[in-house]
Design a protein that fits this description.
Blueprint lengths: L2 E5 L2 E4 L4 E8 L7 E7 L6 E6 L6 E3 L7 E6 L4 E6 L8 E8 L3 H4 L8 E2 L3 E6 L1
């Protein structure tokens, strides 16, 4: 059974930092891009960041560029999202996803990625 399990969410003050992790299990994710998406209350799910299998190609939403960094450790089957200078508008449930696609394509696969985690809540207080 394939599983993506997110962790690392929580409550943080504006300007603070958090690191989310996404641990994959149940199959090898060789060749899979990994991505992070988020959904705030009353809003549609949106793309945040994606990283290629090699880790050499990354893509970010404009709203998080310069503040968030996506990375992965293929030996641990884990992807990360390091979030700095958090803002109240970053408050959302964050989901990780995996798909055999490019980072560019993953940025528009808001619901269509092959595998999804259950989500982790990030709350940024002002």
């Amino acid at each position: 059974q394939v599983q993506l399990v997110e962790s690392g969410g929580g409550l943080v003050q504006a300007g603070g930092s958090l690191r989310l992790s996404c641990a994959a299990s149940g199959r090898t994710f060789s060749g899979y891009a990994m991505g992070w998406f988020r959904q705030a209350p009353g809003k549609e799910r949106e793309f945040v960041a994606a990283i290629s299998w090699s880790g050499q190609v990354t893509k970010y939403a404009d709203s998080v560029k310069g503040r968030f960094t996506i990375s992965r450790d293929n030996g641990k089957n884990t992807a990360y999202l390091h979030m700095d200078n958090l803002k109240p508008e970053d408050t959302a449930v964050y989901y990780c996803a995996a798909d055999q696609t490019t980072t560019q394509s993953m940025s528009i696969m808001v619901y269509q990625a092959e595998y999804w985690g259950q989500g982790t809540q990030v709350t940024v207080s002002s």
